[in-house]
Description:
With 182 residues, this protein is mainly alpha-helical.
Amino acid sequence: xxxxxxxxxxxxxKVPNDSVSYLKESLDSASQEKIEKLAFLxxxxxxTGLIFSLVLGTFGVDRFYKGDKGLGIAKIxxxxxxxxxxIFFMITSATNSFEPYSSFDLYNDRFNPYTGFxxxxxxxxxxxxxxxxxxxxxxxxxxxFIWMLADIFLVFFGIKKDNLKKIFELLNTKxxxxxxxx
Length: 182
């Protein structure tokens, strides 16, 4: 078994399955110097990214591991921000702590001939600030969960594509060049 074969065995699970043959061809045609450089190349393990997605996905750790810091921060803000807002609106709607400002009713102040202007509350305000805030934060939380589930696959396959790109950059070989050689 040659160094190229050993290196191929180590890298084949870290690149997309449809590119394994291209990887083998490029490794076979690479110089010994490039093979030695490739032996020290740090590639990320997609299984680690998958575990991070499953266990710590709500904290964006999977995106940080992949190298997408901006998406990691956005994932944290969307998930935890909507979660905090959901809790806030649930508590405030249960306690009605901001009662005078809870309605979108433009005619909330009605004239009372005996006492002057007085807040009017008929108890039928179904759509109020709390309900809208609760619905919006619940929708954002649902979107964050959908993103978290989608990221399980996106991060796993994204890491494989990033590894392949790194390998081909080091080898200075493109897929199109390999298909022309065949």
